[in-house]
Sequence to fold (1216 residues):
Amino acid sequence: MNFRCLIRHLFLFLASAGALDAEEPVHPGARIYEKMCAECHGKNGEGVAEEYKEPLTGDRSLKSLTRRIAKTMPDDDPGACVGEDAAQVAAYIYDAFYSPAAQIRLHPPTIDLARLTVPQYRTVAADLIGQFRGGFQNPADNKHGLKGHYSGPAIEQPAPEPGQKPGEKKKKTQFDRVDKQVVFSFGAQSPDPASMVAEEFSARWEGSVRAEETGVYEFVIRSENGTRLWINDTKTLLIDAWVSAGAEVREEKKSLFLLGGRSYPLVLEFFKFKDKSASIELQWKTPHGVLEPIGEQNLSPQQVHPTMVINTTFPADDRSVGYERGTGLSKAWYQATVSGALAVADYVEANLGELAGIKPEAPDRVERLKDFSRRLIQTAFRRPLSEDQKQFVDTQFANAKSAEIAVKRVVLFTFKSPRFLYPGLHESEQPDDFDAAASLAISLWDSVPDETLFRAAESGKLHTRAEIAAQAARMLADPRTKTKVAGFFHDWLDLDRAEAISKDQQAFPGFDQAVLADLRTSLALFVEEVVWSPRSDYRELLQANYLFLNARLGRFYGKDEVGEGFQRVDFDKNERAGVLTHPYLMSALAHGNLTSPIHRGVFLTRSVLGLGLKPPPMAVEFENSKFDPTFTMREKVTEMTRNTSCMGCHSVINPLGFALEHYDAIGRWRTEDNHKPVDAAGELSFGDGEPLKVSGARDIAEFAVQSESAQKVFVRQLFHHVAKQEPAAFGPDTLDSLRRSFISSEFNIQKLLAEIAVIAASDGLPTAAAPLAQK
Amino acid sequence: MANPFLFNRREFLRNLGISTAALPFLCGLPSLTGAPLPQRRQRLVIMFSPNGTLPDEFWPEQEGENFEFKSILKPLEPFRDRTLLLNGIHNKVRGDGDSHMRGMSCLLTGSELLPGNIQGGSDTPAGWAGSISIDQEIKNYLQGRPETRTRFGSLEFGVAVPDRADPWTRMSYAGANQPVAPVDNPYDMFGKLYGQMKDKESLVSVLDDVRDDLKRVSSKLSARDKMLLDRHMALVRDLEQELQSHDGDAQLQHPVPELDPSIELVNDNTPQISRMQIDLLVNSLANDMTRVATLQYMRSVGQARMRWLGIEEGHHSLSHDPDGNQASQEKLKRINTWFCGELAYLARRLSETPEPTGEGSMLDNTLIVWTNELGKGNSHTLNNIPCVLVGGGAGFQMGRSLKLDKVAHNRLWLALANAMGHQITAFGKPALCEGGPLSLS
Fold:
């Protein structure tokens, strides 16, 4: 479409039913634009390589856009386009291409076919195999620690019976108890000095261990005695240190890749025989943690099934659109899926009897293995088998040398199939209940439908919006939803960045990896507390005046009274505003020894308030030594960004960043910076209306909870994370409509989450795709 | 030596009358040795069977080249001129642990056990071996040189080794406190050796189905979605081509062996499992995946019930019976003869397999050492431990029965290391190396 044609088209689109003058089809603003703006911005605002290459799109209001044009444009002659001209040209570009609505109209988003993301692949694989062990399991929340069984010869031995050699048939002392942790130093004594001899005794701890985040966990046993450890595998030892080697405490370690949000079976055995002393400590190093004893919060005396964990290395998912989604196909990715499929096949082969529930000599072995194969395909493809697929299974069993090889081939076929790898692949033009089930499972759990969901689809009970919504509501309670939501906060708060935090030890002595690990936990606990409380209130996320602290953090953040475990600690409400001032985030958005109002301001502008920012016109690195050493951080940043070309964005970034100047580089409350009082006050000008006065984090939080663009950006980001699609792909009004119901639900995050999943699952279902209920 | 054309540089120099002490000075002189000689692939296999032997049915009466095999060793008759019997080798390691533990876990290490918590039938409790075993020592040496480096360096085969880890079940050690577990499941060993290749075969067999399915799905998609799946399809094609061009089987000197898929890993199938493991061992040597291997039958104090020999009692219990118990002696003779038969099978398989790089058979370049943790079962002695050497791998003078005078077994391992090119002067406990390597050439 050429330019004139586009303009005509747009004009036609914009014009109301009023008369059209064929002689004069061009918007008066378009003439001005063509004359004064197009040279640098391109005919359609697409940008010009040597002039101003950024496309002319954004989220300013029309009024704000007008004022900005009047004030700054054209770049070489500001003041040449003011008053009515500025208003005309602003009106033209706003509707033609600048506004978000124009962008959606010009480039209507569609629902993109996407492959499983890496976390989705791992979850789906784990649950596909897990279904043969009774499905996803989670131990009860209220039981912690491990079940310990102690046993050893009793001190008091009965007199030997006639004919019995002394020492034969020793009487044993045994007892069970729940141990919060396995950290014991028995010294030269036994666990029960009154009844059990010290020379020889054993113990066995059983239960499960919970991994919060996905990654590599290092398990460490420290003991001078015999120990062995099984984790997530009841057959193969993770650590075998059964044979001791002298009086010194040995440290045995092994690493294991685990999926976050899941519990894994754990058995630890210990025995002492004539060693001089006895002790045992079970420690771990979590992916972002430090080596420490496994705490009771992560241990449960309840047994769980093992989980298949595929630790194949995959290339990172594409996040070029601002969130991770599976639209990038590369050879490396494909090869990873090959390795993944082979790993699953090996796992299935090694555990086939247990998974298929059959003994080697079972007479109906082949038939049972066929059942196993069909069920695997059905769950992986998220719908009943077609005739072709049933035939495929029979052919494999007929051709392979053994039934085991046939199963292995079925596994390879299943895990290589696009029906498995692309969860949004519709088998027919018309999506059906199975597609809805698949969508709900991937949106809320990153997984495949469980039995309940599959049954509902099978019996045609996922046909209406209400039916889908009822399933979504049920699914919220599953811990996998929590894992998905935790992933959202990881992305939203850019916790990848936090992983690289390193602070100047002179400025912040003692602020080490252990403190950072605690802060990460503290933030996770806070998010969990807010999101999974019944109110699930987005406003609390931004406005809460409490933090979760343990003793170590208490010492850092001025609450010496805090005890050992994590607990909720209230602060003066002017000192804390939810995630906005959480010390972990404040530390991440800061330099090694100084704050960084720009990093903080950019985060608030983009991710919290939802205001668009252009990339900076020039890259400027903050170099502390270049500034007057008596300056405060605020003064340094002000000087650094005073250039007009900077102030286009920094007029917003800076006051937001300055408002957080009460938080030092590790997020502690402060009143002085460089021996001067902190000045956190400022004004934000959005172009229309009165400028907003802010004097601290709380003002930003108050503003954010009632700002339309802040609400929208939260909804949009959650939508991206959950559905891996643009909201507008489900209709131009999707975002607005979700925002309205978010407000009317008192900003309930859980309800928003469910509604997003329902929208994604209802797409294309004729009976479910009715307009969203207006609230 | 069976084939006079096969020798390594050191033997060549020795034949010229130049001592190994001069070797470092000569190595850089091609004029002396002429064009680089093809390195022959020297290999070492250490085979273990437990619970001692019956000395009277084992050791020949005669010394020297004219000896007669006693009943237990009769299966070795076809390899008489390639066999070297070493009587008088003592395991002189003392310290913690009972005789079985020291017999087993000091057998290949030649040094004392670490203190520990494992209590045997007598003596003090003990832990793992305190130093590296000779097979791992030689492996490290071979892996350290590009010309002798192989994919695995060493392979540890087991037959009917119980699933437990203690000083009675491990003889191979990567270092102090680092036992190396033998793989006693032939299917696991097969997976380790050829797993990737078999996986590829399985993959190739389903790729056609994957592609057909992809076409079916693809035909129903929108143009935009189809684009993504077309790219996916191209990746499937790439993989297929790659799998075809890297046909691993073609690169192997010896084809992947076919394993009977239906052998259950139970005691009564031990004979079949033994033969599967030996076949895999020979195959892995022929394909040069390793040059060092161990083959461990059961474990020290093992109670295998060898019903395939018509014996119901456990092996260890039988080995405790006094010499006067004729029935038990008869059974023990059968048991040990069976082990010797497995050794003979291994030797036969090697002798029937042509050396992949040159002339002769693989047995010409392989030395098999068959040993035991005890000299005699019912006395628990560590003296006169069985040492039967078969094959030409070490360049020893074979076809002899030697009666040595209470020689520490460390000196045998020294001789072995030196014969494999690894010029060490001590191994294990230095005091037990006095006298240097045994001279067996």
Summary: Chain B touches chain A through 43 residues (CB under 8 Å). The first helix of chain B runs from residue 9 to 15. Residues 7-37 of chain B form one domain. Residues 1-37 of chain B have pLDDT under 50 and may be disordered.
